[in-house]
Amino acid sequence: MPKLPGVNYLAAVRAFEKAGFHILRQTKHIVTTNGERKITIPRHNPVNAITMGGIVRDAGLSIEQFRKLL
Prior knowledge:
Elements: H1 9-18, E1 22-26, E2 29-33, E3 38-42, H2 49-58, H3 63-69
Antiparallel strand pairs: 1-2, 2-3
């Protein structure tokens, strides 16, 4: 599996928006959905690489697809 560095949470939100997700609510975490899947992004910088990898997988994307969206 390709490596994914820690990512700024705002960059991650923008990348998921490009992938068709939109923000439902923002608190200590940002909850986004594409109508089918719901993902939660923590609001701290950088988001740990392991955590970010899990979020990307939950979104139904591969690491390479996510890196292209960044």
